[in-house]
Amino acid sequence: MAEQVYDVIVIGSGVMGSSTAYSLAKKGRKTLILEQFPILHSRGSSHGLSRMTKLGYREQYYTHMMVNSFKMLAELERETGTELWINCGALGIGPENDDYLCDVKKALTNVGGAVDVLADEELKKRYPMLSYPQDHVGLLDHKGGLLKADCILRGLQTVFRQRGGEIRDCEPVMAIHPGATVTVTTSKGTYEAASVVIAAGSWADKILGPLGLSLPLTIQRVTVCYCRELNPGSHSPDHLPCFAELYGSPPYEMWGLPSYEYPGFAKFGLHSGPEISPDTRDQPDGKWVTDRVTAYVKEHFPGLEPTPSITEQCIYTMTPDEDFIMDYHPQHHSIVVAAGFSGHGFKLALVVGDALSDMAMGQVPKYDMKPFKIARFQDASSQ
Ligand SMILES: Cc1cc2nc3c(=O)[nH]c(=O)nc-3n(C[C@H](O)[C@H](O)[C@H](O)COP(=O)(O)OP(=O)(O)OC[C@H]3O[C@@H](n4cnc5c(N)ncnc54)[C@H](O)[C@@H]3O)c2cc1C
To answer: Could you read off the pLDDT of 50-59 as tens digits, one per residue?
Structure first.
């Protein structure tokens, strides 16, 4: 017998689960979040103080979603009375006429986003701390910036609770039984709901396997590196935007954020890392990642000490095309699957939560959901 009955149970208190629950509570649904670890833990993908945001994506559908994401972020700022981001800009760096940058510029122009293309001398003048070859340009997305990630996560959970939402942490979900209603069994009890949203991050396969669904997800450890400023304050958000460059072969994305989390240390990461299991995250050797960051900083950021002073670990859950998965379980319409946020989901979390909450309520989301269907993977099959 279920202890309690809810409209929706959300599994996972990362930014996707929390945002979905926040939306459900605001839409008047009685909602429970179940989380295996203590709230605000650092074992998944949503911990830490900062993430990059931007308006322009190469893909028009994400750019359209970002327009709404900024509006929803402003609403969360009003609800929490807290500043949740710093509008320091997002800079894409690459060779002139690079396809990727041209597509982003087009997408930005289509939604009326302010954008500058900074060539050689202009780039040097605007950002003297950068050192890139003469043929490189900087595409400055004015709407971009730094998200205060931990404040956003806490804000979502606070508003959720204020609206009557319930969070049970340290309570791993052990089994899900679909039926006329869905029964969820945890280490501590049994709960029932009309529908369930599974937002379990890199543990998605562990929960979905027993439900007969296998998704093509790759789990990677991402090492975040913090490099010390030689001249204190020179790489703060007042001077340096968030930035990203596709470089090397195969093309790796190197991304970075101004000094904020640890004042005096700019943040860098490679959009890739060793494959891991989320339960044994720190076991494999990932020295090649910090070596690449060190070489990159040495070449392009002469005002920083290239060897990272601090490193921290986080997890990416990648899909083959790096598009998200937001869909109903193929056999069970009362189960919504949210997975594979592929290292770029935080900035879209509010929109993701809005879409997933509509799906859990049996309503059609207002976004183009075609790119996120499970059916796009030929080998995503029932076991
Ligand atoms: C280093 C790094 C940098 C990033 N930078 C950016 C960026 O600049 N911009 C951007 O937009 N995005 C960025 N991202 C991506 C973004 O942070 C992720 O897409 C997002 O956090 C994914 O959230 P999630 O809720 O899906 O996963 P998670 O945060 O991992 O949440 C899943 C939750 O489910 C819980 N769970 C799992 N199994 C169970 C179970 N059986 N029972 C109960 N609970 C369970 C887990 O404990 C976890 O709390 C970055 C990610 C990393 C790692």
So the answer is: 999 999 999 9
Q: Which residues contact 275 (CB under 8 A, 6 or more apart)?
A: 218, 219, 220, 284
CATH (residue range 4-46+150-214+321-376)? 3.50.50.60
Please tell me the distance between residue 135's alpha carbon and the centre of ligand 1 in angstroms.
36
Pick the residue whose CA is nearest to atom 37 on ligand 1. 200
Each domain of the chain, given as residue ranges in start order, spans 4-46+150-214+321-376, 89-144+218-318
Pocket test for ligand 1, best of 312, 325, 346 (most atoms within 8 A of CB): 346
Task: Say if pTM beats, i.e. exceeds, 0.90.
Answer: yes
List pLDDT tens digits, range 156-208: 999 999 999 999 999 999 999 999 999 999 999 999 999 999 999 999 999 99
**Do 134 and 114 meet the contact criterion of CB atoms below 8 Å apart?**
no
Task: Show the ligand 1 pocket: residues with CB < 6 angstroms.
Answer: 11-17, 34-37, 44-46, 51-52, 172-173, 199-203, 207, 222, 224, 269, 314-316, 341, 343-347
Q: What is the gyration radius of the CA atoms in the chain, in angstroms? A: 21
Domain 89-144+218-318 falls under CATH 3.30.9.10: yes
